[in-house]
Amino acid sequence: MNSYQARTDDMFFVLSRVLDGPAQLQALSPYAEVDAALMQQVLDEAGKFVAEVVAPLSRDGDEIGASWKDGVVTTPPGFRQAYQAFWQAGWPALSASPAHGGQGLPSVLEAMLYEMLSAANHGWTMAPGLLHGAYECIRHHGSDALRERYLEKLATGEWLATMCLTEAHAGSDLGLVRTRAEPLPDGRYALSGTKIFISGGEHDLSDNIVHLVLARLPDAPPGPKGLSLFVVPKFEPDGTRSAVVCERIEEKMGLHGSPTCVLRFDAAAASLVGAPGKGLNAMFVMMNAARLHVALQGIGLLDAAWQKADAYARERRQMRAPGAGKGATTPDPIAEHPAIRRILDSQRAWVDAGRVLAYRTAIELDRIAHAQGQAQTQAQRWCALVTPIMKAVFTHQAFHGGSDCLQVFGGHGYVREWGIEQIVRDARVAMIYEGTNEIQAIDLLVRKVLVDGGQDMLALLDGLQADVPDAADTQAQTRARIDTLRGLTTGIVQAAPGDPALPYRVADDYLRACALVLLDWAWHRIDAGLDASAPGTGARWQAPARALRQWVLPEFEMRAGIIGRQCEAVTG
Amino acid sequence: MNSYQARTDDMFFVLSRVLDGPAQLQALSPYAEVDAALMQQVLDEAGKFVAEVVAPLSRDGDEIGASWKDGVVTTPPGFRQAYQAFWQAGWPALSASPAHGGQGLPSVLEAMLYEMLSAANHGWTMAPGLLHGAYECIRHHGSDALRERYLEKLATGEWLATMCLTEAHAGSDLGLVRTRAEPLPDGRYALSGTKIFISGGEHDLSDNIVHLVLARLPDAPPGPKGLSLFVVPKFEPDGTRSAVVCERIEEKMGLHGSPTCVLRFDAAAASLVGAPGKGLNAMFVMMNAARLHVALQGIGLLDAAWQKADAYARERRQMRAPGAGKGATTPDPIAEHPAIRRILDSQRAWVDAGRVLAYRTAIELDRIAHAQGQAQTQAQRWCALVTPIMKAVFTHQAFHGGSDCLQVFGGHGYVREWGIEQIVRDARVAMIYEGTNEIQAIDLLVRKVLVDGGQDMLALLDGLQADVPDAADTQAQTRARIDTLRGLTTGIVQAAPGDPALPYRVADDYLRACALVLLDWAWHRIDAGLDASAPGTGARWQAPARALRQWVLPEFEMRAGIIGRQCEAVTG
Questions:
Q1: In angstroms, rounded to a whole number, what is the distance separating the alpha carbons of residues B121 and B301?
Q2: Which of B410, B433, B499 sits opposite A172 (nearest CB)?
Q3: What percent of chain A has pLDDT over 70?
Q4: So what's the pLDDT on residue B287?
């Protein structure tokens, strides 16, 4: 029914007032001319495009879905027209380099655009979702010939792209990939194997599709070090169709607008991207940006769910709210019932904090690219540590908080009518792809924290604590939580040698504990940024802040307790 | 792929060894002859019927679903044949009185049957799910003529039944029901109005359908006290079709096998059931049994999800498990990875404890019917307090724990292949119907606990604590949790007068805290019952017990903290 409207005022408030984004970005040379007014204008235009062109296609995207016949995939009604309008208006090129036809704007604007797109139509947004990663991959690892051939097409979005990693027996463990690449006389390779779960592996949205494929050269060692990256276009420059066949598309829980393809490569002519055996490195270059985008899908979907539930709860009247006067007999809007209030305010606390954290991370990505010295080092630290946390908790929250929003509708939430159950079904996949949430937790604790004895994480926590002065009660509580998390970090570092499985047992709890500290920090930043320019009333910001402290943050102590007991059991 | 197999050995172990069910029930006169061997035989036969007849229809039930055309509803392939086989084999009559063609067996066997049916095929099971409630309703409130006409048909299940409560504007607040009943000259009433969300409101499974409908007499006061209960059959005894039209069926997130109908009553001839203005009382007579059945749906669905995830995790190999030897390079079954182990063991802890609590509740329902004096009073107390807890937490766990089981499959869980995503979609509705989980929490705290100043709850807690001797560490922890819950109960009772909204703010936390104490208690009962007759190895029972204590129970302290702070804010 009511479809998503981007809250660009809330979004811009976080970017400008809470994060001081325009000034921070103008300090980086490529963005010296990008002022607040330009940023706001881009966001407003993006909000309009999303609401007018993309959001209205979401229901058909789910109900009609993509279909497959004899290797040909047809996307839902309107999807191709919307995509053509999207790339021709220059949206995919937002943060690509002007050297390749891009607009050279900061990554954070692209991040905010993808938040809106995902909120409006997750299925459609899957198509351009991998473009920027493919662009960066070829930009950094491709030969001059490949760059010449692909960069502008990918920067502008005229051609779409895929990432072909997974095989039936190789999911989280890409070291098991079996697809083989045999050298051809012309310097290319004949690529053979079957890839599954390929989003947008075949479709009618764009005139060409650029597949990035992980495969093994004949002399490659087993395991992840034997993987190389290749590029295979759907159509060669002379119009020849490559030997890539879409064998079927999957029937899924949701995301029906996005064709999830089984792709069979039958000795398809492929070009090597980067060095042999360095396939995973080439892919990992874009990992942080891709994971941040998935986190933004979560934030967008949760906001969309919240918007629907909020609107419904204001209209729907059932029973008197507790504490209401005895006289009247008219039922109250369910928004006034405490159980509903709690759901709505808690989800809003997640969304607002999510924006602070995600936009900050996007700014740090630009700092990695364009700053030097300590600023760059700190940006790398932030992105390495915060990105897996964001990916895991915001995809989790989109599904679980989205389900809470569904609950606001009662039985009306379980039927299609309001579109809320679609959000819950669509959101579920994001907990799995781009590295399952369990993999994110291991990435954080084992690969990022333990690897340097916790030093980077402790430095990050110092930075967070420095932002929270010890004045109000809530600030003291936050500082204490950061102290606790510091202790847990050191505790795991010390206990891990005694039991190599320990970090894996507590990784999920550790990631949640870190996330809650980040959420807590983000709301102090919001508190500090609040002024007369903030959209909405005081209650607009006080209600989620209160919900955060009453209902959301207590999980921190629970997680801390679990981790502490696990460490004690090892160290005695 | 792999379809559900009832674990009747686990189920019977809980009933016989953990709960001493056969002896407890044989002490009630109607069941004096029902010994353990008979119970086990009934369960084994039920398990076979469910596996052979009902489970295989689940996938088509979801994919083809029920369909509507011109008021006629067609159920999915095989559904009618399976239902005819079901009632003709006597399954609906299991616990109905022999006076009405029933088999007079204890309610717990019916409960266990419905756990299996729901696990195997939630959509199909919706059809007979309301039979027993309708039977009890007419048995206790119907006139002799109505009893004569309907009881045997409902007891045997030859005819199916519906509950027509909800209207578009009246969901949780039934006081807003508008359907009207005008007296007819023959003593019946002309019933007019539109009911929504009527499970099985129209279908082809049985030759007749008996609708129980809430409506208002012309002189009825507004609100819930103006509601009366009526019965309207689809077909009158002379074969005339009643003026009830199925206007459409809903498109839902799941449960596609069960038609959710909009029913329009056009001056349909209706008979009054019970006294005018006592419609809700007549419905509430069966509330505890109905809510227990919904809790059993949750337990069954969670078990089905667990079975699928457990089987997949033993076969699927990805990466070495932490702590595995360095030498081998073969990837390990993901069941050996701690994140997966945690999911599997935690869900099993919920399922096992769920059975202890649900079967115990079913035994108490029989005590209410057939015991006297203190035993009966205690049984009433148990059912009043424990039933809303069970309904809320096990439907919650089926969805959230089911989603965790989906996660075990990675991307393979998001596609239809293994049927796990269907379980998650199907399970979601049970958090809403039969009183939303938020309503259960209010029912528990406001209507059951506060109403007598907490006395019944404190007595229940005394009983739980008496079952847990103060010997082992885990026992001391459990006793301490019970003490804490006692203090929270008293705290809310004392603080509530200062803020009438307080109980509504903490109702969800209170219900969760109670549930965790019950779970904790249930596992002590399991520990006490373990002997050589327990199915499986020691690890079969130790792993979920450990998971419960490590990962599940820490939520108790979090909930206690939230409640305590809310009470303090009121009492100062």
A1: 9
A2: B410
A3: 99
A4: 79
ipTM score here? 0.97
CB contact under 8 A, A432 and B411: yes
Q: How many residues does chain B have?
A: 572
State the pLDDT confidence band at A326, using cuts at 50, 70 and 90.
Answer: low
Q: Please tell me the distance in Å from B322's CA to the nearest CA on chain A.
A: 5
**Which candidate from A172, A250, A433 shows the least CB-CB separation from B415?**
A250
**Pairing verdict, β B72-74 and B67-69:** antiparallel
Return the structure tokens found at A536.
Answer: 């909405």
Q: What's chain A's average pLDDT?
A: 96
pLDDT of residue B3: 80
The mean pLDDT value for A402-418 works out to: 97
Shortest Cα distance from A504 to chain B (angstroms)? 6
Interface membership of B554 toward A (CB under 8 Å): yes
- Grouping H, G, I as helix, E, B as strand and the rest as coil, residue B252 is strand
Interface of B with A in 40-79 (CB under 8 A): none
Q: Higher-confidence residue: B144 or A572?
A: B144
CB of A510 within 8 Å of any CB in chain B? Answer: no
B567 with B368: CB under 8 angstroms? no
- pLDDT of the residue at B328: 65
Write the residue in A318, A429, A442 that is nearest to B171 by C-beta.
A318
Q: Is B549 on the interface with A (CB under 8 A)?
A: no
Per-residue pLDDT tens over the stretch A59-97: 999 999 999 999 999 999 999 999 999 999 999 999 999
Most B CBs within 10 Å, among A172, A174, A178, A253, to test the B interface: A253
Contact criterion met (CB < 8 Å) for A342 and B561: no
Per-residue 3-state assignment (H helix, E strand, C coil) for A163-177: EECCECCECCCHHHC
Query: Quick check: pTM over 0.90?
Result: yes
pLDDT digits (tens, 9 = 90+) for A233-266: 999 999 999 999 999 999 999 999 999 999 999 9
Furthest C-alpha separation in chain A: 89
Any CB–CB contact under 8 A between B323 and chain A?
yes
In 3D space, the residue among B104, B565, B458 whose CA is nearest the CA of residue A474 turns out to be B565
Distance CA B252, CA A406 (A): 12
One-letter amino acid identity for B347? Q
The segments of chain B whose pLDDT lies below 70 read 1-2, 325-328
Catalytic residues of A: 434
Stated length of chain A = 572
Domains in chain B, please, with CATH?
A: 8-151 (1.10.540.10), 160-277 (2.40.110.20), 286-571 (1.20.140.10)
Q: Which residues in chain A are contacts of B501 at CB distance < 8 A?
A: 321-323, 338
Residue A41, judged by CB atoms within 10 A of its CB (0-12, 13-18, 19+), counts as: exposed
CA distance A533 to B113: 61
Other residues' Cβ atoms within 10 Å of the Cβ of residue A314:
13
User: Looking at the predicted structure, is the pLDDT value of residue A2 above 60?
Assistant: no
3-state DSSP call for residue B273? strand
- Choice among B182, B434, B557, B568 that is catalytic: B434
CA–CA dist B213, A443 (Å, integer) = 56
Closest CA to A129 of A107, A108, A147, A114: A114
For the question of residue B434 being annotated catalytic, the response is yes
In whole angstroms, give the CA distance from residue A267 to residue A191: 5
On whether any CB of chain B is under 8 Å from the CB of A440, the answer is: no
Q: At what angle do helices B122-129 and B107-120 cross, to 10 degrees?
A: 150
What are the C-alpha distances in Å from A241 to residues A207, A233, A266, B282?
12, 8, 12, 70
* Residue B325: closest C-alpha in chain A: A500
**Helix A502-529 with A338-370: angle, nearest 10 deg:** 90
What confidence tens digit (pLDDT) does each residue in A466-508 have?
Answer: 999 988 899 999 999 999 999 999 999 999 999 999 999 999 9
